[in-house]
Predict the structure.
Amino acid sequence: MFFDPADGMRPPPFKFSPFKSLVVPRPIGWISSVSAGGIVNLAPYSFFNAVAEDPPCVVYSVGGFHADGGPKDSLRNVEETGEFVFNLATFELREQMNQTSAQVARDVDEMAMAGLAAAPSIKVRPPRVRDAAANFECRYMQTVEIPSRKGQGRNAVVFGEVVGIHVRDDVIVEGMIDIKKMRPIARLGYNDYAVVDDFFTVLRPD
Ligand SMILES: Cc1cc2nc3c(=O)[nH]c(=O)nc-3n(C[C@H](O)[C@H](O)[C@H](O)COP(=O)(O)O)c2cc1C
């Protein structure tokens, strides 16, 4: 079948938009930040990826609004304070990751709310999720706006330069990241997730 998104994202026979089920699996940017007043925030973003290696850069995209009508905390904090941390969520942390997607008041420390231990960062102010498999300390670069066709707020794509990388020692085996030990989780469509615990290797032709 074929459909034009401008005609609607849920043509028959789809019960829900298939869009996010067709770009899979998406890594989850579990973003910690602090507000200008020093409140710690943590939230998952699956419109997330690495987009450059030199310098290393990541992006995440914030759509919709905070429950109070303003921008979500992961956008407001980072635009105001210029720093964030990407925390790599693993299978063991799946429930806590999901908990931090709850809409809560801006003065709630979401790392503490989810029962997660915070560890200090080295080059930026936002703390890291201590038990994540890796953390990237990031400096905010810029926001690229994708105007909503339906006027449903901003689609704000936040770019950050990675200025510090933490890797949990137990996932480093013989000088490489051991994916089977790390077990990162990724977002599929609907409320479904994947865990990466197997892989195959393909050598390039040259
Ligand atoms: C796995 C997962 C992925 C998500 N990805 C996004 C996303 O890419 N963009 C977005 O705006 N919201 C996304 N959300 C919803 C936000 O996490 C949610 O709106 C959260 O309350 C935002 O919190 P904040 O205001 O603390 O930033 C996602 C939720 C989950 C559970």
The pocket of flavin mononucleotide is lined by residues 28, 41, 43-47, 61-64, 66, 72-74, 98, 101, 103, 187 (CB under 6 Å). The CA atoms of residues 68 and 105 lie 8 Å apart.
